[in-house]
Write a structure and sequence with these properties.
about 190 residues, alpha+beta, OB fold (Dihydrolipoamide Acetyltransferase, E2P), five-stranded mixed β-barrel, two-stranded antiparallel sheet, about 20% strand, endonuclease activity, endonuclease, nuclease, SNase_OB-fold_sf, calcium
């Protein structure tokens, strides 16, 4: 019951044993924040899909679902920063956000939870839509960079694979690299 039918209401409900086991959780993406995080409405067990649908995801606004969803951070990548706290958005932030929204919003995802980050988001790594990996797909498309700050998680693929795919996107001038590699990275933008 606890694993397959009890709904995890928010990131606060994820217990240490779930992190230890690196348990997978299934849910529907309700909203996308910046292009490296999103909110997941946990949908365990049966009853969420046809033909036996007796449970449903609330159709509330973004703010009303905040306490009923899990805030997920995509492991291993850093996206261009959107406009926050009076600071302007980085170049390509709207395009990266649109790419991620188009790819996952409203879809069912399986997430392997790794740990909680400094902002109480749950860091995840797992298959996106079999056989692709969301963070690696974003790197291939050129909309994110490899996250290299303290506490970075890369899952089973490792940092070298992330850097290799980022280098391929830069060489092919995809996404935010279409004008070259001289632009400010999200990490440099945050430090500034």
């Amino acid at each position: 019951f606890r694993r397959f039918f009890r709904r995890i209401r928010s990131g606060d409900w994820i217990t240490p044993d779930i992190f230890t086991k690196k348990q997978r959780i299934k849910g529907v993406v309700t909203t996308v924040g910046d292009a490296d995080n999103f909110r997941l409405y946990h949908t365990p067990g049966i009853g969420w899909r046809w033909p036996i649908k007796f449970r449903s995801i609330p159709s509330k606004t973004k703010g009303e679902l905040k306490d009923q969803t899990i805030h997920i951070r995509i492991a291993g990548v850093d996206a261009p920063e959107g406009a926050h706290f009076g600071r302007p958005a980085q170049p390509y932030a709207p395009e990266a956000l649109a790419w991620l929204k188009n790819a996952i919003e409203g879809k069912t995802l399986y997430c392997r939870v790794i740990r909680r980050d400094q902002y109480s988001r749950i860091v995840r790594s797992d298959k996106f839509m079999a056989p692709s990996i969301l963070s690696l797909e974003m790197l291939k498309a050129g909309w994110v960079t490899t996250y290299e700050q303290a506490g970075a998680e890369y899952g089973e693929w490792g940092k070298d694979e992330f850097l290799r795919i980022e280098a391929e996107a830069k060489a092919a001038r995809r996404g935010m690299w279409k004008l070259g590699t001289s632009s400010e990275t999200p990490a440099e933008y945050k430090r500034r």
